[in-house]
Amino acid sequence: MKIYRVPHLLLYCAVVISASRMLLNTSAFATPNYERQKLYENKSDNGRAEKFALLIGINSYPTKPLKGCVNDANSLKTILTRKFNFSDDYHIKTLLNEQATKSAIENAFETHLVSNAKRLKSEGKQGIFVLQFSGHGSRVPDVNGDEPDGWDETLCPVDTDLDSSSHDLIDDEIESMLTVLTKYTDNVTLIIDSCHSGTATRDLDFTPRRLERPTLKAKNGAEQSDISPAKLPLSPSPKYVVLSGCMPGELSLETADDTGAHHGLMTSALIAALENASETSTYRDIWEKVDAGIKSKGISSQNPQVEGDLNRELFKGICERKPSTFKVINYLAGTDTVQINAGKTIGIESGGIVAFYRKGAKTFTGDNDNIALGSVTQAFNYISVVKIPETGNVSADEIQNAQVVPVTPFFGQKRLCIAINTTDCKRSATENKIWKEIKAALQNTTAFDVQEIAAKSIDRTRKTWDVSIETATGKSFEERGGSLPSTVDKNVQGFFIATKENSPLFNSFVPIDTRNGARKICIILNNRLRQEALKLFSNERSGISSGLEVTLERVVSGTKEANDYKFKTEPSDNFSIPCFARGDRFRLVLKNTGLINLFVTGVCIGTDGSIAVAFPRAGHGAGRGDELLTGKTVYSPVFTVDQTTPLGFETLKLLVTTDPVDYSPLQQAAVGLETLAKTTTTRGDERCEGVRSMLLQAMYKPEECSRAISSFTPKLSDWFTKRIDYRIIEKTEVRN
Questions:
Q1: How confident is the model over 9-20, as a mean pLDDT?
Q2: Fewer C-beta neighbours within 10 Å, C or N terminus of the chain?
């Protein structure tokens, strides 16, 4: 990405990074509007808004049954009842498997949701309503001519028919149902863990989740396979929030936990995020954690979506909620290791950071009543082992009785599982030599797990590894989605890294005759690890993150030379990831609405494998950031998407602190064909303290993360991160 500077605009920035890869829209990170929230408060005698949910989970389809949808519905019921005051079976209705026919769903929507919303409105009250669906999605021929592609998107009840659309819930019908419901309430949440695209799936082994209808054709003659994938199209509304499992054209996955129970990947991450929701958590806050939870599993192909009033507080009603706190269940006095009763089921992973708050603490943000931080050294489903540094004046009893909450659940790195092809009968001597060098290099580091798999089994074992190392000609590389420079012969044989989605990582192709080819393959893999560690770094206990509003603006006209740019703000009611084509330009608007001055650094995590400090301007404190004064608004440089930027998702990570920090040691070079031979990585000053030390440790020595925590005592209220994701697409894909 090229960066053009905007003259005369001082960027008061300093740094951190946000690790919840939530699909952050380009709209402002506003503090919740409490005046508006009064609309959603209930005035009933018990002081709480009445809440109703209709939860639908279908596994037992006659054709293409699923495994985790019933568990999705039951898990959501449990968390809504236990934590969000959806009080009993009268308020929560579930339709599971054979119960979830089309007529039953329509009847339950009318009698359970609409009738109660109508009753509450007649009493002068506002109810809160949730509709959840976990099951198949499909397409059927458009019946009213409102779809340009000739097809309607649908949700599939259990009695859906492959040969007709009579039993599907068509998008037009769903929108009509919502129109009726929102006449009586302004607070509706839709949770749809179902895909509406041609490649949708609910299994990590890529079992198709979308129901194909080969016997049906659109009136315009279009085949289902001819259609560009599209999600369930609902008109944006301030009265409801829609949480969807993935972007158009992506896979919606489900997986099994250690007990063998299946869940939708999105729903599983949502439950973990809800476990740690606070009283003021917004839909934006939750969805950032959902996306981070999915990415922490090594899944980059599924990007959940949120649309609607994202700054609304979650399931708003007058009720006290606080993060779920956990307990120390085993602590040997005199040691630095404890066990806590929380683990992978609520998103805690090895390398994560947790905070210990004094018994009786009322709030769990910032430094008040915080007595220690710890690093997770082992994480199991329901238990984690935590290492605590020197606690000073804190007694063993205080640690034993402390309340424990996650700070950065996904901090650190997961070991990258790599599949390598063991079939060598057709390899040249040079190719075999490089394969042996690659294998030896990978096995000499603790960052990678290597699976040796026969070539014919690579695709069948895709769910068991993160990336694979493969060989192909330059022509085959381009057929897999790569792009070679004109200087490279398409008939040359080479190595590349394939992702789970079967596309080349970082668009990197290493010809077999490349000098030090094995080392360069390892550089690509290490760059992937460091990028993921940076994306997932966050501080959920900061307490000051609401003081920074961030808005993304698209450049619609003007030039750098004339400095006559005109900008268009991305819609605030749409949380879809913004898309930019090569050559497009944009900038960030940053406003400090808090009571303390901040330093913000923007770090670009590129599709070419690079990590680069994007702002502040070069020469201003060597990457330390200028100061963003309270009450002030400043602008980032104008970013231009380079013509050679590989397609895919990029991230701008904002690292925000109350003191200046130099984040330039985080930078790493791209791994493209021309730059690969010159790639070097700066480790940074390991004597550095504070947040940067903790981050560098995660990126370069994840097995020693606990040492980074013990080397300093970071104040939780002194830093936080934010994350802006966007997608680089072909020019032909851009929509106005």
A1: 28
A2: C
Residue pLDDT, tens place only, 628-652:
999 999 999 999 999 888 988 899 9
The tokens for 697 are 């440790």
Give me the torsion for CA of 318, 22, 268, 134, rounded to 10°.
Answer: 90
Q: What is the 3-state secondary structure (H, E, C) of 111-128?
A: HHHHHHHHHHHHCCCCCE
Task: Find out whether 361 and 369 touch, Cβ atoms under 8 Å.
Answer: yes
Query: What is the number of residues in the chain?
Result: 736
Pairing type for strands 633-635 and 262-264 reads unpaired
Q: Are 613 and 664 within 8 A, CB to CB?
A: yes
Residue 75: what pLDDT? 93
Contact 184, 310 (CB under 8 A): no
Count of CB atoms within 10 A of residue 564's CB? 9
Least confident of 264-273, 279-288, 301-310, 571-580: 571-580
H/E segment holding residue 587: strand 585-592
| Cβ 402 vs Cβ 328: under 8 Å | yes
Taking the C-alpha atoms of residue 128 and residue 181, their distance in angstroms, rounded to an integer, is 11
Compute the distance between CA of residue 170 and CA of residue 172 in angstroms, rounded to an integer: 5
pLDDT of 424: 57
Q: Does residue 462 contact residue 206 with C-beta atoms inside 8 Å? A: yes
Q: CA–CA separation, 537 vs 527, rounded Å?
A: 16
- The pLDDT of 651-664, averaged and rounded, is 90
Mean pLDDT of the region 469-488: 89
Q: Rounded to an integer, what is the distance from CA 11 to the centroid of its chain?
A: 28
**Which DSSP category does 574 fall into?**
B
- Decide: 126 and 52 in contact? Cβ < 8 Å: no
Share of the chain above pLDDT 90, in %: 26
Give the DSSP letter string of 602-632: EEEE-TTS-EEEEES-TTSTTTT--EE-TT-
Q: What are phi and psi of 469, to 5 degrees?
A: -100, 125
Annotated catalytic residues are 136, 195
- 709 CB-near residues (< 8 Å, 6+ apart): 353, 373, 374, 375, 387, 389, 694
- Rounded mean pLDDT, 145-161: 69
Cβ contact 635:627 at 8 Å:
no
Other residues' Cβ atoms within 10 Å of the Cβ of residue 304: 25
Quick count: other Cβ atoms within 10 Å of Cβ 251?
24
Is the distance from CB of 588 to CB of 11 less than 8 angstroms? no
Residues whose CB is less than 8 angstroms from the CB of residue 578 and which lie 6 or more positions away in sequence, other chains included: 25, 26, 552, 554, 570, 586, 726, 727
- The two beta strands, 353-357 and 370-379, are antiparallel
The answer, yes or no, to whether residue 213 has pLDDT greater than 90, is no
How distant, in Å, are the alpha carbons of 403, 501, 502 from that of 469?
A: 45, 13, 11
pLDDT grade for 209, boundaries at 50, 70 and 90? very low
Task: Tell me the pLDDT tens digit for each residue of 489-523.
Answer: 999 999 999 887 778 999 999 998 888 888 889 88
